[in-house]
Amino acid sequence: MTTQQLHEQILQKKSFLCVGLDPDLAKLPAHLLRTEDPIFEFNKAIIDATHDLAVAYKPNTAFFEAYGLKGWMSLQKTITYINENYPTIFTIADAKRGDIGNTSSMYAKAFFEDLSFDSVTVAPYMGKDSVEPFLAFQDKHTIMLALTSNEGAFDFQTKLIDGKELYKHVLETSKTWNNSQNLMYVVGATKAEYFAEIRKIVPDSFLLVPGIGAQGGSLAEVCKYGMTDKIGLLVNSARAIIYASNGTDFAQKAREEALKVQQEMEMIMNYR
Amino acid sequence: MTTQQLHEQILQKKSFLCVGLDPDLAKLPAHLLRTEDPIFEFNKAIIDATHDLAVAYKPNTAFFEAYGLKGWMSLQKTITYINENYPTIFTIADAKRGDIGNTSSMYAKAFFEDLSFDSVTVAPYMGKDSVEPFLAFQDKHTIMLALTSNEGAFDFQTKLIDGKELYKHVLETSKTWNNSQNLMYVVGATKAEYFAEIRKIVPDSFLLVPGIGAQGGSLAEVCKYGMTDKIGLLVNSARAIIYASNGTDFAQKAREEALKVQQEMEMIMNYR
């Protein structure tokens, strides 16, 4: 999928919502646990209930790998279900991979070719040759961690190198890599005031923004500092939507929560 | 497994060799491609041929994920085979994971519980709360990237923060985390002169050392600067051993290459 197609979908749906799929068996509605593949059934119901309100889904690979082979099968079924039923939706494998060149090539193959995701999240610590193998795929997108939404973000990401924070070096350096036009970045919503600075370095790139909802970030603040002419944001919400209820009404409640976010997004898009 | 048990195994085998399992279908011996699970058959043969010369095996998860569900099944069969047949061998999931706390917990569950690895590699970029969920597991080990063996290591890892390289901050900061005694670190062999400095910060920790062989590092140099009283090194070799031949003699040739490394290690251990 091209960023142009993603942008068109955002305008059409009046939404830049990404729904995070973090299926934890301990939190799933009890009635689903009696099905053959509770994780897939859960995801499917959430997707069917929210596909007109969200422009992206982001399965978090940890929540599938934790269940071993069965979990990987659920991941495969989930991405296939989205691609077959909602082909205009942007898909993100939240995998945070990154390794030396020949290994990163295998990860790229796993997520772009075998599973057919539109994008994958990667970690920057190993530098250029750990990310470029992902960037080599046309019309696929590599979403690199810049400034994350967790407490540990302040351990290293905000440390100063020559008077400038590490995450800014990460942003700047990555722009020099081959096929850097295929980069997007993770920037946590819990640090909204940082968006203005970030937009000076990557004025047009899409930013994937976790941290709204359970982690306490404000949508209005993020948009104020981070939105571009072409929106340029994918705001993720996982727990607040997918675990809105753990009863038989979970999908309906998820839709209601997603609708609230979409309506706030529509308002922001209309009045900016 | 405890580090004490790992140390005993090293003394007994006169080896601190870790064999990296990076099974690439394009490089596997042709006759294996006709079997039902070529990747597992390849790993099994390599393991059977080298288990008395190596103290650790390190399956690289990318090379399994690239083959989707079938690949994950091969990974599961490989770790189960090692644990059942060679239970004293130390196992490393080379996965380079790391995410916010609740997600890292799921990765820890995947590799320590579901797959029963002794250790897993993690990336430090997201800081404390992204690594501590791994450290919470008793007698399991978390091997954090410090200074890697690739070119991109110089993009960020060696940048100066208050006059000190980022990777040194990573080492120092990690020592303050809960259960930091369960940490080991990845330090590339291609930068042997850095080991002396690193040993000032982590004098006793085990270091996992990639970069010998295909990537050009020297074993003698690494040992000169990095070895401790209790050895404290796991030196990884993958391609030089596992792809020593792609004929029907691949396992025998792998053994010959592993033996060369083990003999050099034995000499170093005897004459230090």
Total number of β-strand segments of chain A? 10
Strands in their spatial order, largest beta sheet of chain A: 1-2-3-4-5-8-9-10
Helix content of chain A: 40-55%
The mean pLDDT of chain A is: 96
In oligomeric terms, what are we looking at? homodimer
Structural class of chain A: alpha/beta
State the shape of chain A: globular
Distance between the termini of chain A: 27 Å
Global Rg of chain A = 18 Å
Residue share in β-strands of chain A? 15-25%
SSE string of chain A: HEHEHHEHEHEHEEHEHEHEHH
Largest sheet of chain A: 8 strands, parallel, barrel
Largest interface: A-B, 59 and 59 residues
Tally the helices of chain A. 12
Low-confidence segments of chain A: none
Question: What characteristics describe this protein?
Answer:
homodimer, 272 residues, alpha/beta, eight-stranded parallel beta barrel, two-stranded antiparallel ribbon, 12 helices, 45% helix, 17% strand, globular
